[in-house]
Amino acid sequence: MKNLSPDTHTPRLFYALWPDDATRAALAAWQTQLQGQPVRPEKLHLTLAFLGQRPASDLPALLAILAQMPARAMPLLFDHASHFTKLALAWAALAQPSPALLDLRAACMRALAQQALAPRFEHDRFTPHVTLARQAPPPASQDFAPIAWQARELVLVESLKSSGDYRILASRQLA
Length: 175
Hints:
Blueprint: E1 12-17, H1 21-31, E2 37-38, E3 46-53, H2 59-68, E4 74-84, E5 89-94, H3 99-114, E6 129-134, E7 147-151, E8 153-159, E9 166-173
Antiparallel strand pairs: 1-3, 1-8, 2-6, 4-5, 4-7, 5-6, 8-9
């Protein structure tokens, strides 16, 4: 586990599935077909649960939750780009969320609730996606080569306010 960034008393955290290099490159190729500000390839991920700002004292419990989540690799098939109009985000969409992904999300939310750490603003609705571009109009084309991602890495990430970068604090391999 890495340490929190210096002077971080309330880090901004989230759990995510982290793509391998080949998946990251395929997602980055989709970005060339989109308008807007592309998300840097090293930041591409699928958020499982956004935790928001948390006191650093929550970190041991959050790490324990990461260690206890189901550790099963899962296939994800992205087959089209979509758009969140209100947020002006273009994103990679799944043909069908896999039951393993939905089970992992549910297990994560249950574990957070059991530790009284469930995000107040998280809704039961979960739209799994990878944000590809911000300040983006809807995708003009739907001609995207499908991306098959065998998700094998679950991470706890700190979002650094000062730079907008991400730091992986802990990682769990999914077998």
